[in-house]
Give the backbone structure.
Amino acid sequence: MFGKIVFATSGAPDCDSAARVAFDMAGRYGSEIVVFHCLGIPGKGDSNLVLDVRTGEEVDPDEEYLEGVREELRTTYAIQLSACKNARIEIAVGNPSREVLRAARKEDADLIVMGARRAGVEVGGFYRRGVIGGTHRKVAKAARCPVLTVSRPAASFWGGFSNIVFATDFSKASQSAFKLAQSITRDVDGELHLFHCLDLDRLQSPIALTQEGIEGRLAEARRKIQVEYAAKLGDLAKRASIEVWEGSPYVEIVKFARERQADLIVMAHHTRNVDPDEGPDERPFGSTLEQVLVRATCPVVSVNRPDKLPEASEA
Amino acid sequence: MPEGIYCNKQPITTDEALKALLSDTRGKKYYEEMESLEVDREKLWSSIQKTMKSRMKTWLSVCARCGLCADSCFLYLVNDRNPEQVPSYKIHSTLGEIIKRKGDVDNAFMRHAMEVAWSQCTCCNRCAMYCPHGIDIGIMMGYLRGLLYSQGFVPWELKIGAGMHRVYRAQMDVTTEDWTETCDWMAEEQQDDWPGLEIPIDKEDADIMYTCNAREPKHYPEDLAEAAILFHIAGENWTVPSEGWEQTSLAMFAGDWEACKLQVQNVYAAIERLRPKRVIGTECGHAHRATVVEGPYWAGRPDGQPPRPYIHYVQWVAEALRTGKLKIDPTKRIKVPVTYQDSCNYVRNWGLAETAREILSYIVEPGYLREMTPNKEHNYCCGGGGGFNGIGKFRPQRNKALLTKRDQILATGAKLVISPCHNCWDAIRDLEEEYRIGIDWSFLKPLLIKMVVVPEHLKPKDDDGDA
Amino acid sequence: MFAFLTGPMLWLSFAIFVIGCAWRVVKYVRGLDWQLDRVPYGYYRELAVKGALKSIFHWLTPYGSRSWRLKPLYTAAFFLLHVGLVIVPLFLFAHVMLVSERFGLSWPTLPAGLADALTVLAMAAGVFILLRRFALPEVRIITTAHDLWVMAISLAPLLTGFVAAHQSGDHSGWLLAHIVTGEIWLIAIPFTKLSHVVLFFCSRAQIGVDFGVKRGGQRGRGIVW
């Protein structure tokens, strides 16, 4: 299903859940897995020094140091690596989000797996413009392949997935996410819950909006799900359900996932600048997605491009 | 030991040699070996006789020792007015002494001269404007660096940097494939947000050829994407060369004139190959100085001009704003106290002070600009120029030097420093890291992208996303 | 003795001064190298001339450059010293009389009182500059014996001339000293830092061209002071 997985890790314990899922998947599908670690941010003008992403200290990324980091990763993931035939470790220096993307592109990865918490400590306040904290955001926004994020010790592992929630906002990107959800559901023989949340905050005058109006919109959204997604499910349709709620999307998505005991949420993230005051750096790329990531009790996989969907790779 | 394995008089010309030198962490062995590196006195003196012409001889001989240069030098001021930091003293106690002794100087002297040349002068050329005789110590320091380099007395990082230019024609190990791949990657990444955006490689007869800093493809490819976005919005017919895209020159900082020539010839060859109407460089000061201001002379062009008109990024931005190719949304102008960092290399040494102010008049809400004192052509170096930023050995001196800019910025009360120069940008980032004064700093490109009006036809077709 | 010093020796001194200075200028100009200096001499004539003249003009004008304005006291001393050394001798009544007697040429002269005042001020300025050399650490560190000698050579004719002009009775001793020191001064010019009599113009013009043509003269405001 996923021929090559890039597992981006800080090597810290908060990536352990992600590690479990990544290696489980690799084992199950015989995927090639690249354990990727960006160890430091280039610093200090044209010098060779880098700031270690974990300690924030200045280090010299010479061969000895790089080997030390590799060794550390080998030790951290010793058990998993020994169980995986096709695994290797890659390390790089640079801005983490950029380097993860570069690695994914270079490796032609089919899936990126990341931990959702900050990948390492915040290195110096001067990198506050999201170099670290925004790593996930930037990767999720620009990656061409699906990005699977595991923020909590996930109870499930790949293959144990049976309840998949697909949350849509009807964007173009959501179509790619839908295709991904569809093929995963098919693959794990699970159930698919098609979900949309009517964003009340974004309705122009919520007070003026009557209950009838809301219900009308809910019905309309249901219809839309039916037409755009459910109709394309084929034999999967009998294992699918449709649900539309109203509220704040990220809250409702998380609530819905909990109610359905979902073990995977599939969604796109929005590529448009929704807040005109925010520049490209601060664009809340899939801010709904981010909120879901932090709150969800199950892994979340996101994609917003059709290029590297599992279907496409099989075809 | 006349020459060391790491520290010697030979320039780096192969990838293996580069890797070998890089493997010597922080140049530990390199500097150890330097202590016993022999000075080739004859060669030193003969090269002085060949290259030291009347201008410099006169500068050295007529210096009236009036000391007016002292206060012009930010390093003198920031180092508690240490007399040894007086520009005149710095050059006479080094270059002047070598000449007085006809090249008969020893190893310890050369190592001292190296320290002066790279940690006590950033070649900002400010002193030249304060000397009654018009003596430019910065130029002489550059010359001294050349002599020191030829004898192997050069900071480790800069020996590597110059070697990078010789091997890769770039200041970092970015190959042609790496570069073109990065261009493709960035174009691809922007396609959703900017339909139709391209980064055309090797397009002939374009209006603009764009050159940049190897640091950008290597670590900050977003910068390239941002350049592409702005050209896209402005509707420019532009291109990047597959070869000859690197505009910077650590070789210039190192005093490796031969590598400087190789580097700039590479860019000029691209210009001649692609025949653009003009060339635009990225937001970098020393790159501009190397390729546009000094480069023509290295390449032997007597009119002092590159093969085609070659302008700095701020010139293009000013022009694009003036002609309306880029329009700023007035509601998005900068509304925090903001100041502008004048880069020595294209402001004092290329006259773009007013051009930069023109840009500010478009992007800063009136009343929010806080000029530094002094500013424009008289502004102080960021503290990291001339290679100072990159030299680990002289980091303490560099950090001290940053205090000048820190205090200048603090005095303005600005919260944002606009700094269209890689070196200044780095220095300001480092000073924030070092001294934490709570400022932000930025190139022009990200600021412009935030506030530029995007023409309807360039906006992505709406998909139905409602969040 | 007196005849020799005011005759052949004076001629010789002037010859050395003029030829020496001319030689220094020629050597300077011939030693310029567009590639090594990184200045396109010979191109952009108009900008070059403009840059050179602008540069010289601003620095010959009291407080005409930013540097002069930042150091008002030193600038005052500098200009007083140079006025006393260059302008006063040229327009001194006694000097003009000499020329007039020998060659029949004459030109307006300075009133005696003003000449005296300027001479005294020049000497005071010279002394001030000397004291400043020792008082300020940033000047002391770059001071050499050469600088002191040059100042001594320059001030000597002023002092001797002033005394000679104001002594009552037999003043041939002071006059002789004045002539000798004046000749030493003239001869020293091409061979010492005093060569800046001409090289100042060369050097200033050169940097004026550098800034005016290459470093910004083609854009913006050009060189600024």
